[in-house]
Amino acid sequence: MDKLNNFFVLKPDSIKEPTTYLGATISKHKLDGDDYFTWAIGSEEYLQELLRVVKKQIAPMQLTLKKKVYSTLPTGYRPELDSTPFVDDDTAIFYMQLIGILRWLVELGSIDVAAKVSMLSSYNAMPCEGHFHAALHIFAYLQKHPDHVLVMDCGYAHHLRPLKKADYSKFYEFTKDELPSDMPTPLGKAVEFTMFVDASHAANVVTRQSRTGVLIFVNKAPIIWYSKKQNSVKTSSFGSEFAALKTGVELLEGLRFKLRMMGVPIQGYCHTCVDNMSVVKNSSVPESQLKKKSNAVAYHYVRSRCAIDILQIEWIISAENLADVLTKI
């Protein structure tokens, strides 16, 4: 900071450890068993101010936030089945503001409401009264559970099951890991990746579109959480899971590129966990054959990335798949 002060005038009281960043509260945490402190981000202070504003705006509507809330959405509620009347123009604008606020809260670490906010954001153009009240229900849930903190743990995951790399040389000999030509020399400690991928097959009961959920860790810090409905309708859970895995690999490659351009060294492959055994076998066994042509693009894209050791895939039970929270209501 003293060197920076030679070029930029810094106020004396501004030279200190960071406490806020883009609405997030920055703090230090020491996890059980660790002998070091690590940074953590939370949104409690930002959320409290938002709750104050939201309560003030819904007061003229004779509305309040519920106090007894046990889930992120009302029990049994399906946004796509909502048949309540459309809201008026002013309420529709307010609804879009609420969704925008919730989306930023998701970015700040409220991963448990990511899938629900994504579902409700599909109705920004013409929300119904039920959608509006569901958005308020999420605020009520966050009011009851305000202490969302993501610890950016720099420790390594130490996976118990090292994955064996298969020989893809006969199938994808033309594929190679394309490094940026202008990337800086990597310095410092290398980072490792862990990715969880899940899909809720035909979850939308109206269109039967599936939902993709991806959660990517750098070391033991959650960095990317993604929840979005798939564009096409898949006829099997295998198809929806493979499409989700393709999306996850795309996000992973983007993150690898970004870190490399920042000079961060990358260690080994990404330990990828999915809960569909057919997807695991078709991705990790070179001799496996694809039976459905509609999944061919995702099939070869994922396998070619396994061939150059960007990721290796293993099966886990659904109860251990952390991406499940990004696909289910």
TrEMBL record:
Domain of life, source organism: Eukaryota
Organism of this sequence: Cylindrotheca closterium
Protein name according to UniProt: Reverse transcriptase Ty1/copia-type domain-containing protein
